Amino acid sequence: MEVLNKIILKKTVNYSIEDFYDIYDVIVTLEDFESPTKNQFICRFCGSNNPKHFRSISHVVPEFTGNRSVKYYEECDSCNNLFSRYERALSIFGGIKHSLSGVKGKKYPKHIDRENKFRTFSSSTGRHIIQEEESPKGITVENGELIIKSKTLKFKPRYVQKALVKIGLSLMPKEELSKFDKTLQWLANPNDTFTIKKHPMFILIHNFFDQPRTKPVAILVRRKINYNCPEYSLLLFFGFFSFQIFIPFNKNDENLNFDNINLPLNNFVVMGDSKREIGFDHFYMDKLEDTRFIDVFRTKKFK
After folding, report:
1. Share of the chain above pLDDT 90, in %
2. Is residue 132 helix, strand or coil?
3. Which of the two ends of the chain, N or C, has the fewest CB atoms closer than 10 A to its terminal CB?
4. pLDDT at site 39
């Protein structure tokens, strides 16, 4: 096992990558996922079975990631409306990179920086910067590299985590859902009291790709050996981003030693398709207060 990093707080988190597929099996991917149609009017999140409450079109993975085809038939309108709040937080977390990824959902996303007076967006013809001033703050060129810095809109980090967990539970085999009663309660409560501050189950692993994906890839994996790590993990790739999370509140994880937990990381998440050296960011997504951060986009090729 190659140990990459340790977080020493109240608990110790050990990251490793060499043994990921020795520990986890792929259960389902977005590519081979088929939403059951025979249970079309039973919501797997709240149990609603009123056909009149299933008028919205739901997606396993949010439409803004480029998923315009994989629909979902086990999510009622009420849950769909709630989850859209979480998905908006995930979209905002993408910051300026999302606007320049070329990914089209219902439409191409835009990023507006009112403070520095510029906006960025993608279209069918490429990436674009519209400047109100000749040299706006936040846009510089250094050694032939274009660097754009801009604050994100406000978002709640916990909502980002909930958006990703919702994807994981959407892909989850139905016979496994009984393990996740508390997870479903957590999802149903935007201002829940379940989240534990600085707990390893609320860590988001995040990396940035050089080349964007215009269609998302989602993979749900399950632990196959006796090992001190969470049973389920979700991998999500879209645009410039790769994400990995672990599904919290699983009954099968209650006996784990969280004071010295192991978090196996997927090779592709932490290295990307270029097989470059390992590098990733990790964030505790337990915070419910509104947050902003300065996002940075770099490129040597920009038109």
Report:
1. 61
2. coil
3. C
4. 65
Task: Tell me how long the chain is.
Answer: 303
Beta bridge partners of residue 234, listed in sequence order: 220, 245
Domain boundaries in the chain? Answer: 3-33+155-296, 94-151
Contact between 261 and 198 under an 8 Å Cβ cutoff? The reply is: no
Tokens representing 58?
Answer: 């739901």
Order the strands of the 3-8 sheet from edge to edge. 3-8, 12-16, 260-264
Helix 157-171 to helix 77-93 angle (10° resolution) is 120
Q: Which residues contact 125 (CB under 8 A, 6 or more apart)?
A: none
Question: What would the pLDDT profile of 121-162 be if each residue is shown by its tens digit?
Answer: 999 898 898 888 777 788 888 888 889 999 999 999 999 999
Q: Determine the residue type at 276.
A: R
Per-residue DSSP letter, 68: -
Query: Which whole number is the average pLDDT over 163-184?
Result: 96
Widest pairwise Cα distance in the chain? 60
